[in-house]
Amino acid sequence: MSMNSIAIVGTGRLAKQLFHLFHHKDNTQVTAVLGRSAHARASFNSSVYQTDFNIPLQAQYVFLAVSDAAVETVSNLIQAPEALVCHVSGSVPLSALSSHQNRGVFYPLQTFGSEEPMDFKNIPVLVEANSPENEAKLSSMAQSISNQVQVLSSEPRKKLHLAAIMVNNFTNYLMGMAEDFCNNHQLDFKLLQPLMVQTIENIITKGSAEAQTGPARRGDHSTLQAHIELLDKDLEKEIYTTLSKAIIQKYAHEL
Fold it and tell me: At what angle do helices 234-250 and 171-184 cross, to 10 degrees?
């Protein structure tokens, strides 16, 4: 089996995950990690880390693991004439890499808030490329690390990314709001953890429509009002009220 060579541009959490993944993968060699900060060298193999964007990247695949806002700018800065250049963003279109002849998207649909190396086998990887040949290359690369690989073009991928924000970031914010409320009222937030786990399990096994419970679904306005009065901040009251109204409207046919 031939050796794949990979370069990674970026030094954030996803860049570190990709480095660990490919650095320890058979038949794959990480030839370069390109970043702006010399201080990031310690997080990678120092022999492959570089900060000079003028040096051409010698690799078959280049992964741009930078912020969404920086993808196009960084893409235009790097030199990788022989590489298939890919970004790893859910919301950035393939066209952001138009300065490269061979370009694609390699989007792992997962949150990377942890520094610990992650197992990519159960992480969906969504790919897109500017030619059938490049699409086949990216699909093969993705299938070597993940059990869930799909080809998805820019527009539906952007919509899926929006859904991912709802599932991950919004849910995390609400749990954080509950944690703050518990802390402010000397309550043990850990008592809610079994409920959090069961809620996610119910959504996965039953679907969100059937899993939905609570006073808003029941149309229990007296309990809703009592809860609002317990909240300290206007923003918390607004969030609680807006979400409760949305649930009431969705299940109004049951009341």
Answer: 130
